[in-house]
Design goal:
- By secondary structure, the chain is α+β, with helices and mostly antiparallel strands.
- The chain is built from 8 helices and 7 strands.
- The longest helix is centred in the middle third of the chain and has 27 residues.
Amino acid sequence: MLTMSDEPTTVEECDCPDPGVPAYMGTFADLMSLMLCFFVLLLSFSEMDALKFKMVVKSMEDAFGVDRPEDPETIPLATSIIQQTFSPSPNQPTPFYTQTRQSTVNETSDLQIDNLKQYQMAVRNTQIQDLNQLLKEEINLNLISVETIDDRVTIRINEKASFTSGKANLKSSFIPILAKIRHSLAQTKSDFIVSGHTDNIPVNSALYRSNWELSAARATSVVHVLLDHEELQAGRFRIEGYGSTKPLVANNSSRNRAVNRRVEISLLN
C-alpha cells in the first residue's frame, strides 16, 4: 500500500533584486543636485566685462597695425541670470584706451620718407667715418677735405695740391693720393659726381676759351685717373663744370680765390 512521504519538501530561493532603486542612488542624486545648484549659483554671480574686453582687443589691434583707433561705442549691456533684466556692466576706469594706445600715421608714405631719411643719414655718417680714416694723412696735410654738402658726402681736392695754375693736367705728386681716393670710393655702392670749380678771373689760355672749359677739363682729368684701374666703372661717374658760378667764399682776395679753385667728388646715395 502506497503512502505519502513524511519528508518536507524544499523551496528554491529566488535571486531577483529587491524591489525599488538601489540605496546609493538617493545619495548620488542628492549630490548631483547640490553640485548643479552650486555651479548655477557661481554663474549667477559672474558677469562678463564686455567693455573692458573689447578695449583690450582694440588696443592690441591698433598696436599691431590691424586697424586705426575709433571712438568707443556705447557701453554694452550684460545680462544677469538671476535678475533677467538688462543692466550696465560695472566698469572701473582703465588705462588701456587713453594712456597706452599707440599712435599711427595717416599716410604710409610718411613712414617711408622718415625711414629713408634715417637710412641716408646713417649711410652718410658711415661714409664720412670711413673716408676720414682712410684719408687721414692727406686731410691733415690740407690736401683734401671731407664734408657734407647738400646732403652729399663730398671729397674736396684743393687746386694748390693737384693742378698747376690755369692748367688741367694733374701734378704727378697727386696721383698716389687719387689712388687712395679710388680705393676708398670702391668700398661704397654710391655713384659719383665729379665737379670742377674756378675763381672769377677769366682764363687766359689758348686751350680753354673760358673758366667753364677749364673746370670741366680738370674734373675730366680726375675721372680719368680714377678709372685707370678696374676698381671703379665709368657708368658710376658724372662730370660737371661750374666755372666760377659756385664760389665757397667771396672772390675778393688771392687767398679766397685759391679756396674757390677746386675739384669735388660727391657721393650719391
